[in-house]
Specification:
about 210 residues; 6-stranded parallel β-sheet; 8 helices; globular; binds NADP nicotinamide-adenine-dinucleotide phosphate
């Protein structure tokens, strides 16, 4: 598939490289594409451009930007370039205030997630929450003795979620579909839980797994 990755941070680069590794075509985007020159040099199969160029290129979009700037980045990408496409939303609504004894602070409430705000602002895009509750180094083919970890996803469009489940399968995850966009109210705070061991004890090498009978 053709993947348009919006972002120039650690998550965007790791996922962009992961898509290339799994045989997809990738264009990664930034407001300043020059800052992706190193990534492009290390990933000769990929290309870098603006947010709008990456979004226009992708059949599937990955949104990996600062949560506070997510709507602005999507605006720069252009609503028309998102319409009808799965948008994998890795973003977390982390506030500027420092963590409280290892617990991150969010600028959203438990009654409205960031992804619900984005879905409302860009109704033509098919947002799917994924990759938000694990650190970037573990996103692509993580190895754990306990087997495949679980990625919790949600979103309103079934076909988009099916497409993202296929990607997660390639990337070495099992998928737990938690339903519609409102479930992001529960999935986004998994980031807070995931970060606590890291912020308190500098332990970052874990992932969630859902056990079922
Ligand atoms: N770091 C992790 O391990 C991790 C794990 C799971 C989820 N996440 C979430 O994934 C997202 C990406 O995280 P990250 O650490 O890779 O990167 P980040 O530092 O949170 O975000 C960097 C990106 O945000 C964009 N950005 C910042 N201000 C902007 C503005 N005013 N308008 C438009 N774009 C703006 C930057 O665009 P330019 O390229 O134009 O500068 C850049 O691409 C975040 O929401 C984070 O919470 C992170």
């Amino acid at each position: 598939m053709k993947i348009g990755v919006l972002g120039s941070g650690g998550v965007a680069k790791v996922l962009a490289s992961g898509f290339l590794k799994h045989g997809h075509h990738v264009k990664i985007g930034s407001r300043t594409p020059e800052k992706l020159a190193d990534w492009a040099a290390e990933n000769p199969g990929g290309a870098a451009g603006t947010f709008a160029e990456a979004a226009a290129f992708g059949e599937v979009i990955v949104l990996s930007v600062n949560g506070k700037a997510a709507a602005d980045a999507l605006g720069l990408a252009g609503a028309a370039n998102l319409t009808g496409k799965p948008v994998i939303d890795t973003c977390n609504p982390i506030a500027d205030a420092p963590p409280d004894n290892g617990v991150l602070r969010f600028f959203t409430s438990l009654d409205e997630s960031l992804m619900e705000q984005l879905q409302r602002q860009f109704p033509g895009a098919h947002f799917v929450k994924a990759f938000n509750s694990v650190g970037a180094p573990l996103m692509v083919n993580p190895q754990f003795d306990g087997g495949r970890p679980t990625m919790f996803i949600c979103g309103n469009d079934e076909a988009a979620k099916e497409s993202v489940s296929g990607i997660l399968d390639q990337f070495g995850w099992e998928t737990a579909d938690m339903g519609g966009v409102e479930a992001a109210r529960a999935i986004e705070p998994l980031c807070m839980l995931w970060c606590i061991p890291g912020l308190l004890r500098n332990e970052w090498a874990h992932a969630f797994k859902l056990l079922t009978k």
